[in-house]
Sequence to fold (809 residues):
Amino acid sequence: MYISFNWLKDYVKIPAKIKPSDIADGLTGHTVEVENLVSQAEQFDKVVVGRVLEVSKHPNADRLRLATIDIKKTKLKIVCGAPNLAVGQLVPVSLVGAKLPNGLEIKESLIRGEKSSGMICAEDELGLGKNHEGILVLKDNAKVGESFAKYLQVDDTILEVDNKSLSNRPDLLNHYGLAREASAIFDLSLKSYDKFFDQEHDFVPDKENKLEVRIEAKEQCARYLAIKIDNIEIKESPDWLKNRLIAVNQRPLNNIVDLTNYIMLDCGQPLHAFDAANVEKIIVRRALNHESVETLDEKERMLNVNDLVITNGPDIIAIAGVMGGKKSEIKSETKSIILESANFSATSIRKTSQSLGLRTEASVRFEKSLDVRLPEVALKRFLTLLRDICPQMKIASSLVDYHSEEKPVIIIELNLAWLTAKIGQEIPRDFIIISLKKLGFTIVHENIDSLGVAVPIWRATKDISIKEDLAEEILRLYGYEKIVSQLPILAVNLPEVNQERLLERKVKNILTLEHALNEVYNYSFVGEEQLKKLNIDFSQYLKLVNPLSDAQTLLRQSLAPGLIVNIKSNQFKRETFGFVEIGSVFFKAPGNLSKDLNAAETLPYQEKHLGLILAGEDGLFDRLKGIIGSLFKNLINYKAIAEFSVLERVPGWADKNSVASISLFGKEIGLVAAIRSDIALNFNLKKSVVLAEINFKDLADIIISLPTNCFQEVPKYPPVVRDLSFVVAPEILYNDLRQEIVKFNPLIVEAELFDVYNGNKLANNQKSLAFHLTYRSEKQTLVAAEVDIIQQGLIEHLAKKFSAKLRDF
Fold:
């Protein structure tokens, strides 16, 4: 958006010491971003007034002519193709080195063999309009040789404001709004806009001639004013009006259209003038589907039921808030107009503008929500200026003023202690009150701690509604640069270490790096057919409301189904391989996680499990037990022994001859088992498969609860190692025998099974378990005699407890 510095001075008295650059800096620091400052005089540097002395035909081009131009100091030869070039004309001449507003740089050149030392300019090349049909011919009062800027009497500076910074400030899309901001920033006196209405002459409506206006789409039109004006003469606008529009990059057309544009840029309210000859009545309604209208840009626009239109009954004469129709445009022969000043729904205008791909100066303002009081203000200002431009004008109808119920004034309670805490620094109370009043706010009541602030109507259009908005208003006037930057005084603690997550990573590293298992992630969903193949009862499984497929209708209660499918998918790729997975399983019981922050209902109970599976040839059961034992030792220390014992409840998929529970420090935490042959056949498994599943939370609780490992010095005294092999009945478990050995005497520090034998040298129903026994004392070196005594007692104890005999072969 372009803002004229001289135009701002109409409403706020700016002293000479405050330069345009100061205004630009002040607005940028406190209100909106001013991207650029342009001096109008600098735009026309090296552009002068010249007189056409001679015009002759170009010898090498039919459409070009040679002109001799007097610029007082010298005479220039210029090649020109304009059809309206004639001797005696006063014209704008761009000299070599000039840079025109349209970006063109003038250079001396040869055009079809003839030297051209400048350019005679058209209107659009000087940024004064869009006409390019011929050169611009100046009035007779132009002086040969004077600068073109002096001829135009331009001494203005234009501020280019970034439109993005105006997105929520429709009150600033005009000169008066920015003048109000400048007055608050620089503590200058702001003139009331009412003073610019004609106070001497009342514009008395003609009550005898009623203008028929009907508002059908009331929810989309909060206010609608219309009045008919006769004795209109359509002509060129006066210089002051044209210069104002040109300064802000608007093309002058005629006095009526120019005046509506001027009012919009002056106070922010778009106006529209209809040729009264084509308007018998006005109806504001929604368009019909596939209804169309030819707009002022001579394009046919197809509309829909969401678009708001202005009609004269049978015909659409405007797309409300966006663009007028061709049928009712102001023409040179127009004698009467109907002036429209309205407030349309921001949402409606924005949607129509977007759907049509048509964004105009009017729609830009309407779509941001305008002050409902503004249409009346704009109409009065228009009539005041119209009387100066067309003194013979006459009000020819009653004034139509439709408006919906006025919204109540917004009053915000501003707690000053809250404001200080929010900003981080105390701002003086007097400054707060004065600043708010400068911006148009009213203090309706106040006490020591707070203020009651009434929001002005031009800021109550989706802009200011809460106390945070007031804080922003105060702070931007106070100056963000005045707020001292400091770190908040808060205790910063290191994030709590998630021990379970660290343990999970450690487990994965041990199993993948040391034992060559591959980590997998499976879906948490299983299917009924899959569970049937595993001989698992799924009656207590949780069912999904919206399953991904028929094969994934339940939430899993074990990692086994997914791991077995992994083996099936990869069994032909390697001879021996294994997988590890850590994932959640779910049960039909209340959990400890709420469904949301405010709900008492909880999610189903879930826990994390560790699953391991091996596939290959024989011996996998013992190998998997060894991996589990190694894992525990790595996680804790060498004293952590994986204990395997009889499993009371065997899963339906497990081989009863190769299954065991897993315990650690006396707590059962999982199981290890081989897959039954018939189950393997159900899944078409071609290899032997063993699987272990451990409750990861139980494992984590045990490990986390253990005291931190302490360093121990290397034992001073050497161990004594003896090997003993015991022959026992087959129902005697290794773990029971080992526990009796270890607890028999404190000098037996370790018992390691190294061989199991049940060959033909043994009687039927017998087996041999061979142990490495380690004896050590912390006080002295043991001698053979001491070890012999302990060992003999152990042999007798085991013989009595398990009927164990020493193997003699």
